[in-house]
Design brief:
alpha+beta; three-stranded antiparallel sheet; 3 strands; globular
């Protein structure tokens, strides 16, 4: 479990859960949504390993990696 506690605009207007698959590409998945209106979200769910890797890479390179709890 990694928790990103950021005050960045991108994080504040987004809701996401990303699972790295625990070492298995077949298990990788992500749910990503952006709030575009009050309580109105637009987003997607993916099981594509390369998309999940891109999301994880973006979060780690932009916001750093906290030690897993």
């Amino acid at each position: 479990l990694t928790i990103h506690v950021e005050r960045a605009d991108e994080i504040e207007r987004s809701w996401f859960v990303v699972y790295d698959g625990g070492g298995a590409d077949v298990n990788k998945c992500a749910l990503l949504a952006e709030e575009r209106a009050s309580r109105g979200f637009y987003g997607f769910c993916t099981y594509d390993p390369s998309t999940v890797d891109w999301i994880i890479d973006h979060l780690e390179s932009t916001y750093g990696l906290l030690e897993p709890q």
